[in-house]
Amino acid sequence: MLRTVLVLALAGTLVLPLSATADSQEYAVIIKNHRFEPSEITIPAGQKIKLVVDNQDPTPEEFESHSMNREKVIPGRSKASIWIGPLKPGSYDFVGEYHEDTARGNIIAK
Amino acid sequence: MLGSAVIVFREVLEAALIVAVVLGASRGAVRGGRWVAAGIVIGIIGACIVAAFAGRISDALDGRGQELFNATVLLVAVAMLAWHNVWMSAHGRKLADDMRRLGHDVTIGVKPLSAMLAVTALAVLREGSETVLFLYGLAAGGTGQSELLAGGMLGLAAGVTLGFLLYKGLLRIPLRRFFTVTGWIVLLLAAGLAASAADYLNQAGVITVLSAQLWDSSNLLSQSSLFGQMLHVLVGYQDRPTGIGLIFYVATVLTIAALMRLVGGSRRDAGAGSLATRSMT
What residues have CB less than 8 Å from B94, skipping those under 6 apart? Predict the structure, then answer.
C-alpha cells in the first residue's frame, strides 16, 4: 500500500515539470459584499484563460461553476487563480457557493 | 437557515456516501466499524488543519496548491480503493463463506482495514475542510448567525442520515452477492474520484489537453439535483464531462478490473476463490 502511494507521488513529480506554463490572458474579478464585480466577463472562445478572483470579503467563498466544471475555495482577503477553457461560444454561469443568493456571475465566451 | 443547511448538506453528502460504501465493504470484519470510525475522527482533525491553512495551500505551487492538493487526495483514495478491491477479489469469496458458516464476524488482516481507514479519512478531510471553512465564515460573521449555524448542523445531520440509509440499504443485499455488489460500487466510485482528480489537474492548468466539454445532460439529470449528486458520488456521473475526465474514468475502471482479474484468477487455483473473475466475465 505504501508502495502505491510512493509510485503515485513519483508519478506526480514527473507530470508536474512537463506542464508548460503557457502565458495566457488574465482576467480579474472581485468578490465584495458577497457579490462578483464585474458579474459578467467576456473572454475569447476557444482559448484558455486565467481568471484571478480577488476575495476582498473577510469570509471564505467557494467559486463554483457546474457549466465550466470548476470549484475552488478562496479564503477571506485573498486571491486565487483559476484556469478556464477553452470554451465554446456561449454563456457560462458561476456562483459563490457560500452566498449563492447574491454571488452570481456569467462568463461570456465569444 | 435553510440556505446554510443545503450548503452543508451538499458538502457532507459526498463524504457520508463514501463512508457508507466503505463501511459496507468492510462488513463482517472484526472491529471494521472501529477502523472506519477512527478514519472519520482523523478526517475531521485533518479537515480542521486543512481549513486553517487554506490560504497557504491555495497560494502554494504558483497558486495551484489547492487543485494539486485535492487531486493528490483523490488519487491516493483511488489507489486505496483499488487496492481494497484487488484484495477482496482474492479473499472476498472465502470471507463471505466464513461469515455464513460461522455466523459471526471474521478476523481479517490489518492491511485491508487500514486501506478503508485511509479512504474514510481522505473523504472526510476533503469535504470536511470546505464545511469547516463555511461554518467558520458564518461564525466569524458575528451576531445573528446562530440561525445559520443551526442550519449548518441540520444539513450535517441530514447528510449523515442519508449515508446511514445507504449503509442500511447495502446490508439488505444477500451475503452471497454482497461483496460482488460492493466491489462494483467501489470500482465505479474510484473511477468517479479519478475523473474529479482529472478536472482539478485541468483547472490547475497541469493537464491542458481534452479539456472541452463532451456533452451536456444537465437537462436530463442535473448534477446539482439530489439524485444527480448521489449518482455523481457513487458511480461518477457528470452532466458536463470533459474528455480527459472520461479518459481517467475509463482507464481507472479498466486498470482496477484487470488487476482484480489478475490477482483473483491466480489465487483461484489456491482455493481462495475469485469474485472478480466471476463478475467480470
Answer: B272, B273
pTM assigned to the model: 0.84
Could you give the ipTM of this predicted complex?
0.74
Domain-wise residue ranges, chain B: 2-280
Strands A40-43 and A104-109: parallel
Q: Is A93 on the interface with B (CB under 8 A)?
A: no
- Choose the closest CB to A69 out of B137, B141, B240: B240
Place of cell 458511480: B235
List, as one string, the DSSP characters of B198-215: HHHHHHTTS--SS-SB--
Q: Which three cell numbers stand for residue B95?
A: 470471507
In tens digits, chain A (110 residues) has pLDDT values of 555 555 555 555 545 444 444 556 899 999 999 999 999 999 999 888 999 999 999 989 999 998 888 999 998 888 888 988 888 899 999 999 988 889 999 999 99
- Distance of alpha carbon A61 from the chain centroid: 12
Q: What would the grid cell of residue B209 be?
A: 489537453
Please report, as a single letter, which amino acid is at residue B169: G
Question: Under CATH, what is the fold of the domain A24-109?
Answer: Immunoglobulin-like (2.60.40)
Q: Does A21 touch chain B (CB under 8 A)?
A: yes
A63: β partners: A72, A96
